[in-house]
Design brief:
39 residues; mainly alpha; 1 helix; 28% helix; 0% strand
Length: 39
């Protein structure tokens, strides 16, 4: 049992030989803005 289905999917992809560049990871700017500035 895993924390989320996403973790299991990542493990399955890795074991199947699928590799993705780290550049695929994207963080929206709203994650780093203080809560008072969010609209």
């Amino acid at each position: 049992r895993h924390r989320s289905p996403l973790l299991l999917r990542c493990l399955e992809d890795y074991l199947a030989g699928q590799r993705f560049p780290l550049s695929l990871v994207h963080t929206d700017i709203s994650v780093t803005e203080p809560a008072s500035q969010q609209g």
